[in-house]
């Protein structure tokens, strides 16, 4: 049997190795989407960016942010070529290749151009007018009711699947489509947008169908690192950090409504 002093030394070495185990570098793919991630001058800002920065600070993990389209992000996660993304919505298929830790809740609202809103104030009224078109961002999930509605319109060639947030807003701004779906977390910013202000009406048609945005981690990531990041995110929810971050980019009322209960 080894002497006690040697055993203590070995234990200290093993503990030191575990403490020094690297966490990262990991790639976190971001996507432009309203208050969650947006350009502010020459910099990028938003709720998701601030959360990633705070996760890196708390865990010591090296998290490298990149920007990509939502559809490519989900494809890379499924293929195992991406480590993480933010504000993802869980589905049974996605649960097979990624871990989800929720940190915000929101719901989709239908933004309709004002000249259309008077006679298309419900999903059925909109669907009944074949000339009306809607745009969404490809790869997004909008909840059971909206996704079923979109499937009906898509079969009629009335849905534009855009590659990104900027294209979505341009189609709406210039009247190429009559409606878009937006998370409630983005509505305040759109009301302040000089190019869109006064052009649309917000229809809250499915108020009970909230969606949860999550930290999404590839199941190929080291379990110790994934658990460390998830634990830190839950702590940020509990100590009010997430709420404080949200208030930097939305109103206090909106931030309160976005809290995960």
Descriptors:
261 residues; alpha/beta; D-Maltodextrin-Binding Protein, domain 2; 2 domains; five-stranded mixed β-sheet; 12 helices; 23% strand
Précis, in short:
43% of the residues lie in helices and 23% in strands.
Structure description:
The protein has 261 residues and is α/β, with parallel strands linked by helices. It has two domains: 130 residues, 3-Layer(aba) Sandwich (D-Maltodextrin-Binding Protein, domain 2); 96 residues, Periplasmic binding protein-like II (D-Maltodextrin-Binding Protein, domain 2, 3-Layer(aba) Sandwich). The chain is 43% helix and 23% strand. It is built from twelve helices and twelve strands. Strands 4-1-5-12-6 form a five-stranded mixed sheet, with helices on both faces. A hairpin with a 2-residue loop joins strand 2 and strand 3. The longest helix has 16 residues. The N and C termini lie far apart (54 Å). About 5% of the residues have low confidence.
